[in-house]
Design goal:
Layout: E1 26-31, H1 34-44, E2 53-58, H2 60-67, E3 76-81, H3 85-96, E4 104-109, H4 114-122, E5 127-130, H5 135-145, E6 156-162, H6 169-182, E7 188-192, H7 200-203, H8 211-217, H9 224-230, E8 232-233, E9 238-241, H10 255-265, E10 271-276, H11 282-290, E11 293-298, H12 302-318, E12 326-332, H13 342-349, E13 353-358, H14 361-370, H15 374-377, H16 382-395
Parallel strand pairs: 1-2, 1-3, 3-4, 4-5, 6-10, 6-11, 7-9, 7-10, 11-12, 12-13
Antiparallel strand pairs: 8-9
Helix pairs in contact: 1-5, 2-3, 6-16, 8-9, 8-10, 10-11
């Protein structure tokens, strides 16, 4: 840490997309300029803030002190000030008289002063951020206030979806999950959400289960113990939560049920590969919007291009602070089939392919017929090499734990409880 009165500005990486969702809390924000207000507004509509209720006003610390003279302070109060150290401390002393002890306070300042930071933390302020801030920094700061430092880190949810039926999204999801677990030694869970027609059991030579069906049928009762009981162990580091793979029963569930189950599953392993069927329903859209990463598999044809572009445009609009979806071009080089060149395909939809998987019906067909992965039947094939590259890309895409525009001290401190000296 610096020994002078300033600390370095550290920028938040756009790769930071594994932030714990903010709980159902009320947040009051009092900005001192329009730019900060716009940033907080952008953060408030992010998927991770969907449960929180955020109100934004101009006026800074003085305005907050005036507003809360007649009403209780919310769970979190964020105040901004352009003042120097003495002015900020004086304004906060006035605000402390109306601030309830259980309210967490975040101060946004425009001076990068380590002495000020120490005084704020000493007096119970939860965090001090140096303006200008960005949306992801704001979200991470709020989420960090409610994170349990002793809790096991949540697993990343990687959603695999095809641009249309038959593009091989499920096969890619299963092989990539296998590679991550067996070759990269990362514990992984495959969650097959295609309940009537899922292929995970076939691809791993397992009996069709119904674990995910049972879990979705009682989302409010699901917990880690039940999830462990419903999963099938496929190896030392790989587990499967799949559906009944049949049409003998009606299957109806909503977005809340899927979200609840996935939130429990992500406590089970560092990597959760979610096989999303090629249908369109509210729960499918919500699953894709809520995932930490989305992998779209397409074939180099016009219908697949159109659908992939629609998916990517929707995800870019609905996830403005997340990484763009990854595009996988599969079955490239089918003899006598007119194909869109990969470069043109990527340019048309605005996302370059992460990997291009060649047409290899013999290797994939043999693997599927044996109930094995491609790596087991054709480990030296070009397709296996490409899928292994994709597995490494996904496993290596873990967001860095970067703190932005703040000092290198703990932000989990006591609640704000300053009292004006008499």
């Amino acid at each position: 840490m610096n020994t002078d009165n300033t600390a370095p500005q550290i920028s938040m990486s756009h790769e930071s997309n594994l932030i714990v969702n903010v709980p159902r809390i009320n947040i009051g924000v009092f900005c001192d300029n329009q730019q900060t207000g716009e940033t907080v507004q952008a953060a408030s509509i992010d998927r991770r803030m969907s449960k929180a209720h955020t109100t934004i006003q101009l006026g800074g610390i003085a305005s907050a002190a005036q507003v809360y003279q007649g009403e209780a302070t919310p769970n979190v109060v964020v105040v901004e000030s352009h003042g120097d150290r003495a002015q900020i401390m004086a304004e906060l002393a006035s605000f402390a008289e109306v601030c309830q002890p259980n309210t967490k306070v975040i101060v946004i300042g425009h001076v990068n002063d380590v002495i000020l930071y120490r005084e704020l933390i000493k007096n119970g302020v939860s965090e001090y951020l140096v303006a200008p801030i960005n949306a992801m920094q704001f979200i991470e700061t709020i989420a960090h206030l409610y994170s349990d430092p002793k809790a096991i880190p949540l697993g990343r949810i990687v959603a695999f979806v095809g641009s249309k039926g038959g593009v091989g999204s499920s096969t890619i999801a299963h092989n990539v999950a296998w590679a991550i677990s067996q070759r990269l030694n990362i514990e992984t869970v495959i969650t097959d959400l295609d309940l009537p027609f899922g292929t995970s059991a076939l691809n791993f030579n397992q009996d069709a289960g119904g674990g995910i069906y049972e879990a979705l049928g009682q989302p409010d009762r699901i917990d880690g113990t039940l999830v462990d009981r419903l999963m099938t162990k496929l190896g030392n580091k790989l587990s499967l939560l799949n559906g009944p793979s049949g049409i003998d029963r009606e299957i109806n569930f909503d977005a809340h049920a899927v979200e609840t189950v996935l939130n429990v599953v992500r406590h089970s392993a560092p990597m959760i590969a979610v096989d999303v069927p090629n249908i369109w329903a509210p729960w499918v859209k919500q699953t894709l919007l809520g995932a930490d990463e989305v992998i779209i598999t397409a074939t180099p044809e016009l219908p697949s291009l159109r659908n992939a572009k629609n998916l990517i445009d929707m995800l870019k609009a609905g996830r403005p602070h997340d990484n763009h979806p990854r595009l996988i071009l599969n079955q490239v080089g089918v003899p006598k089939r007119p194909e869109i060149p990969p470069a043109d395909f990527g340019k048309a939809i605005g996302v370059e392919p992460s990997v291009i998987i060649p047409h290899d019906p013999q290797s994939f067909g043999l693997a599927q017929g044996n109930g094995q992965m491609l790596f087991e039947v054709a480990p030296k094939s070009k397709s296996a090499e490409t899928l292994n590259e994709l597995a490494e890309i996904i496993a290596g895409a873990r967001p860095k734990s970067v703190k932005a525009a703040k000092f290198d001290l703990s932000s989990i401190m006591k609640n704000f409880s300053m009292k004006k000296k008499k």
